[in-house]
Write a structure and sequence with these properties.
transmembrane helix; DUF423; mainly alpha; 0% strand; 127 residues; elongated; 80% helix; single chain; membrane
């Protein structure tokens, strides 16, 4: 499980860096400052959670089963949170219907919060 989490964290981090560079260089000319700032929020949270997964993968206090739960919470959370932010901030460039995408952001955020609180619980509950 540790290797799987580590690999996902590394890919998630690499993608966040690529998207950050794309936002800073490729989208700078076609998005407003507010849209770019919003896009950067998605990138920032994605990189934070890639680092969080690195921490979880390398922590002996959290069991393999608990790490698996954290992994799913983070991957689904980042997909919904950052993914929806990427789509919403670039909606002026696409024909996407943002009414359906908007509600995904807070759901993803709740899953990310749940992942941190779950790790807190796992560590706190240990003797």
């Amino acid at each position: 499980m540790d290797k799987k989490i580590l690999l996902i964290a590394l890919i998630m981090g690499a993608i966040a860096i690529m998207l950050g560079a794309f936002g800073a260089h490729g989208l700078k000319k076609v998005l407003t400052v507010d849209q770019l700032n919003t896009f950067e929020v998605g990138v920032r949270y994605q990189i934070y959670h890639a680092l969080f997964l690195l921490f979880v993968a390398n922590n002996a206090i959290v069991t393999s089963k608990e790490k698996g739960i954290v992994l799913y919470l983070v991957v689904i959370g980042i997909t919904l949170f950052s993914g929806s932010i990427y789509l919403l901030s670039t909606a002026s460039l696409t024909a996407l219907k943002t009414k359906l995408i908007g509600p995904l952001t807070p759901i993803g955020g709740l899953l990310l919060i749940a992942s941190w609180l779950y790790v807190f619980y796992c560590v706190f509950a240990k003797k």
